[in-house]
Write a structure and sequence with these properties.
500 residues, 0% strand, mainly alpha
Length: 500
């Protein structure tokens, strides 16, 4: 397969998004799942401080301490007093037990992040390979995540070890040379640094195709590494074209981030990354490797015009969203309940901070740019919606924790707000759309968790059906959040000012 044909195959695969993108929606969902562990760690820490009698002391210290930034007047006595106040609070909260609890929760979070990352990679490459064979990508993603994640983990582990060995060897050699002579260390660095960079680039070049070999050839990590090296050696032009496309895609993404920086476009760049760039690159390299193995036959492109397909997709997204809302009222009540409980907890816990760490909606709106706000809020809220919904695949718990966590943040901000009426006036116009939309994705996460549990040992088709449905629900929620973003950018910050 020519590289240009592989690129066209990737473009065609992206035109059937409901069978490919659900696997890539796992990427933003990983931090939501990982966040469960520190949230639980903080909850256990809170219970420990409460039962140990330290919580009352901590609340009193917070109420009597100004936790604002350090004094900026340069007065050593003032800075020393501020540091003493902070130290007194830390001494109350940071006991060996609380440090152990938080340490274990962070360790579990790291482990979960690593495991979920390789599971998502296995699912994504399996979906890409399936679409290149005109098979159902969502079914392949579920099957591939279960079958290939351990081999993908082995590939990633070996690559990480090689990077550590190369960097460690170079650092040790330079340190030894510098201990003998600074001049010798400098001369050695001029020689060793380029060699080390080439070695790292070579490792990355080979390992770029090793996870694809795991999926396409259904082999273990060592055989996959040999397969990746064999492909690069036998097809150097195709490999070089893929590397060039990868670098160009990252350059375009970086340029987009820079161009949109003044518009608050970082969340939008993230959306483009997990909906376009990542699947495009994965399908391209899978097409190149799979063609070398003679195991891919890309589907024909859709015949309908792009505009017609976009309109049909938006209509289907809206229809699936409304159908889901009507079909699962109890899940929506539960989703809203988790958010309300989180709001109450955030309101309660922020009470000692209301005087010492006040917040202000007026201050946050200083320099407000309506266009930037619309882009930032819309993209960020849709990312939160997608991640909350698909994180629910982990037995629904992350979706519940996400709703609780976001509710707690809102409750804390409301508690510490200097002008509550002004905050309420700001939130209402867009909140009446935005908050129900997020409740829908919370309910979607609870639903996916329940379906995943029921089908964990059976056929993948019911869960695959629900993943594709979840994709369309996220499209419908995106419509709601786009409208909310427009209101939040152009209406909410302004309409009430003549009256308040």
């Amino acid at each position: 397969m020519k590289p240009s044909t592989a690129i066209r195959a990737a473009t065609v695969a992206l035109q059937r998004p409901s069978e490919l993108l659900p696997a890539y929606f796992l990427a933003p969902a990983i931090p939501v799942v990982v966040r469960v562990f520190p949230v639980v760690g903080l909850a256990v820490t809170y219970l420990y401080l409460s039962t140990a009698g330290r919580l009352a002391d901590l609340r009193a210290a917070l109420s009597n301490t100004d936790l604002g930034p350090p004094p900026q007047n340069g007065d050593p006595a003032a800075v020393e007093a501020w540091m003493a106040d902070v130290q007194s609070i830390l001494e109350i909260a940071m006991t060996p037990t609380t440090l152990a609890i938080l340490g274990v929760s962070l360790l579990l979070a790291v482990v979960a992040a690593v495991v979920l990352s390789v599971v998502a990679t296995a699912a994504q490459l399996s979906a890409s390979y399936a679409r290149l064979r005109d098979e159902r990508g969502s079914v392949a993603a579920i099957r591939g995540a279960k079958r290939h994640w351990l081999s993908v983990f082995g590939v990633r582990l070996i690559e990480a070890v090689l990077w550590v060995v190369i960097v460690g060897t170079v650092a040790g050699a330079l340190a030894a040379a510098v201990s003998v002579s600074t001049l010798l260390g400098g001369l050695l660095a001029l020689v060793v640094a380029p060699v080390a960079m080439l070695a790292l680039v070579a490792v990355r070049a080979v390992f770029a195709f090793a996870p694809v070999a795991v999926v396409v050839d259904d082999i273990g990590p060592l055989d996959a590494i040999r397969g990746g090296w064999g492909f690069v050696r036998s097809n150097p032009i195709s490999a070089l074209v893929y590397y060039g496309v990868s670098v160009a895609s990252l350059f375009v993404l970086g340029s987009l981030a820079g161009a949109l920086a003044f518009l608050g476009g970082a969340p939008l760049v993230g959306v483009v990354g997990f909906t376009v760039v990542s699947p495009f690159l994965d399908v391209t390299k899978t097409a190149l490797y799979g063609d070398a193995r003679g195991s891919v036959a890309p589907p024909d492109p859709p015949t309908a015009a792009l505009g017609d397909r976009l309109r049909a997709g938006l209509r289907r997204g809206w229809r699936e969203t409304m159908t889901f809302v009507r079909s699962a009222p109890l899940l929506h009540v539960a989703s809203a309940g988790f958010a309300l409980v989180g709001g109450a907890v955030g309101w309660t816990l922020a009470a000692p901070l209301a005087a010492s760490v006040p917040s202000s909606i007026s201050a946050r709106l200083a320099g407000h740019n309506p266009v930037a706000a619309t882009v930032e809020f819309g993209a960020n809220n849709w990312t939160v919606a997608v991640s909350t919904g698909f994180a629910g695949l982990a037995l629904a718990v992350p979706a519940a924790v996400s709703m609780f966590f976001n509710g707690a943040i809102i409750g804390a901000l409301a508690r510490t707000e200097e002008a509550p009426l002004e905050l309420l006036a700001f939130v209402v116009p867009h909140g009446v759309i935005e908050l129900p939309a997020l409740v829908i994705t919370g309910a979607l996460g609870l639903h996916l968790g329940a379906v995943g549990w029921r089908t964990r040992f059976g056929t993948q088709s019911p869960l695959a059906d629900e993943l594709e449905r979840a994709f369309w629900v996220c499209v419908g929620v995106g419509i709601l959040l786009s409208v909310a973003g427009l209101i939040e950018g152009f209406v909410s910050p302004y309409y009430y000012r003549p009256f308040l």
